[in-house]
Amino acid sequence: MSVNRRRTTNTIEVNFLARWLVIVFLIGLAGLFFVYLKNQQHAVGNQSRLIEAALREEEARDEALKAKITSMTSRGALQHRLDDGYITLQAIRDTAIARITPPAPAEVDGVLRTASRDPESRFGPGVPQRSVNR
Amino acid sequence: MCGRIGVVCALLVLIFTAFAWRLIHLQILKHDYYQEIAANKNDSRKVIPARRGRILDRNGEELAVNIPVQMVYADGSHIHDPTALATLAAPFLEVPVKELTEKLTTKSKYVVIRKGVSEEKAQDMMRAIEKANLHGLYLQEGSVRSYPNGEMLCDVLGYVDHTGHGADGIEKTCDAALTGQEGFRMIEHDRKGREIVVYRGQEQSPENGSDIRLSIDMGLQAIAEREVDEAYKTNHPASATAILADPNTGEILALASRPNYDPNKFNEAKPEQMRNRAISDMYEPGSVFKIVVTSAAYNEGIVDDKTRIFCENGHFSYGGKIIKDHHGSGDLSIPEILMKSSNVGAAKISLRMKDQMFYDYVRKYGFGTRTGIPLPGEISGLVNPPHRWDMLTKTRMAFGQSISVTPIQMVMAMSAIANGGKLLKPKLVLSMGEGSNELQEPPVAQVVKSESANYIANALEKVVGNQGTAPLARIEGYRVAGKTGTAQKISPHGGYLEGRYIVSFAGFFPVNKPKIMGIVIVDDAKLGETANYGGSVAGPVFAKIGEKAARHLDMDPEAACSVSKQGSSTTAVSLR
Asked: What is the DSSP letter of B512?
């Protein structure tokens, strides 16, 4: 048996190992970050879904209420209420009516019209205007 | 040693090669196959419904709106405990538990459980299901159409059927514009059926339907409805119709008829109630039609303001038949013929015209042709061409027999007299969608010269005078022109029905600047032969509508026209 035998040793290349460990760590970290982001994305997506649903629900409720108001204040409904005596029509005395002179110029015949009697709101432009005073 | 390492390496290579191959097989070769399976399992196309456009009156008052509702459907592949789900959901859906359990015991991915569930109930149900950790019931947005005014204006509005498409009225005619274009979104859902927002795919926004603004003025409509209703209840006729229009533009301002129906409950209505009499009923117009023969003859110079026609004292024998007047007269001028509604006079005027000429005028007034009002079911009436006439036809047509017209045709013809001779197309839709311009349509034809139209219009003013046939059609404070019509009803077995009449009054006011044109038609009023005349039945209804309409439109009274109706009732028996 030889005494001067050189002892075999396995050297650990720390630099090499450290480099790879860092790379693996970074890749792992990136992976975890990716998973975290993905989870966040899903969570935010879920939140937006719930908000969308809530918004849509509110919109639908709003529309339903609007439709209900429309049907309760429609001419037909008011007429029924009038016939049933729930509401009454009160005549407005002429002295209680304030007639406002509109900024519009007088008509050809020199008669001014009241703001509430603007024909354009009823018949649109181009229709002969009505005169006013009585 | 090397040999063993080589074998291990070879084995590893083989194993990884197999894995790689399997990966290629799954990901590339069978890509489409597995993608389809995944898509079938998790992907779906979610429809985003478009809102149906509203229908508004000319002032923006809502006539047809939408109420949001939900459709509840089941996905059988997500249901694990149908009984528990049915027990929970049944009270919200108002369905028996047993029936619901049967429906939920399915593997089908789309089973409609209930339509038209209110938004509130549907959401409450979904919250309860989620709380109980059950799955398989889902909601799909929808809406039901609501007509806030109920029966009012039903003939114009129509209704939508169960598919959500218009089945009658404007709802049908303008269905394409009202419906819009539904959108969609490609979605992926998890095993609980919830959408995974991150994986949203292609998306297309819905295009909501356009709002439609009608020419109808609901203020006038309410007035017309009330008066027609009163006439219907008082006189018990088979039907009653009133139409108001703007004679200068052809815009229909109100259209009411009885019997009618509630479009919210259209499935409860009888066919008789659903008929739009203004456009789909034809009737012999009677004396109202005398405006055609007189205006045509005047326009052609066959008669003039000096012409006097001998009216044979009310008995004119022609073609082997006797044409009678209600009250016999001697020589009458054209205005007097209209005022007294002389059949003999009208017949004699027609005899001065050539057949083809008379026929051409009848057609130019729009009779025998659809007016083109945008409502479904309009008929063209019945006008026979001259080669099918016998000796009497022309004389009968002159006073509104042997011809059938629709109320809307009569309105447009009378409007032509009111507006200086222009036949207009009836206009019902003012605009579609926001920002769209109002369409101004040119007149269909200049039927008669404006002088001729004005001459007849002034003559028609005498009809509502004390000597005329319709003093009860006068409106306090306004100059009214109009014509009465009293026509015997045609028997389905040929000839006429004894003692049964269709009475009408068509008129306009103020005469010098007409703003309102109206017609009232009462079919077969139960009043007895002596009281059932256009002047005594339809005329007063016209007057009531006109009076209220003038107030609604704030029209200035004409000082010279404050005529009293005193004494009118004494002449009622002689109205024709």
From this structure: S
Out of A114-118, B186-190, B445-449, least confident range: A114-118
For tokens 């045609």, the residue is B490
Residue of B nearest to A80 (CA): B149
Percent of chain A having pLDDT more than 70?
A: 68
Of A46, A70, A116, nearest to B148 by CB-CB distance is A70
The 10s digit of each residue's pLDDT in B98-128 is 999 999 998 888 899 998 898 888 989 998 9
**Residue B425, exposed/middle/buried by CB under 10 A (0-12, 13-18, 19+)?**
middle
Hunting for tokens 């046939």 — which residue is that? B469
Q: Do B438 and A48 make contact, defined as CB atoms within 8 angstroms?
A: no
Contact B218 A75 (CB under 8 A): yes
What is the three-class DSSP state of B244? Answer: strand
How would you classify the pairing of strands B496-509 and B516-523? antiparallel
Chain B nearest C-alpha distance from A71 (Å): 4
The enclosing H or E element of B3 equals: helix B2-24
Residue A65 token pair: 């209420």
Q: Which sign does the torsion angle of CA B242, B246, B249, B253 carry?
A: negative
Q: Identify the residue whose tokens are 């306009």.
A: B508
Nearest CA among B385, B402, B399 for reference residue B292: B399
Would you say residue A99 has pLDDT above 80?
no
CB contact under 8 A, A122 and B217: yes
pLDDT digits (tens, 9 = 90+) for B536-562: 899 999 999 999 999 898 888 875 554
Q: How far is CA B469 from the centre of its chain?
A: 32
Mutation test of the interface with chain B: which of A71, A78, A112, choosing the one with the most B Cβ atoms within 10 A?
A71
| Contacts of B362 by beta carbon, 8 Å cutoff, 6+ apart | B292, B368, B383, B397, B403
pLDDT per residue over B53-83, tens digit each? 999 999 999 999 999 898 999 988 888 899 9
Show residues of chain B in contact with A66, CB under 8 Å: 65
Q: What is the C-alpha radius of gyration for chain A, rounded to an integer number of angstroms?
A: 43
Give the residue from chain B lying closest to A73, CA to CA: B148
Q: Which residues of B touch A131 (CB under 8 A)?
A: 556
Q: Does B197 touch chain A (CB under 8 A)?
A: yes
What 8-state DSSP symbol labels residue B29? I
Is the Cβ pair A124, B195 closer than 8 Å? Answer: no
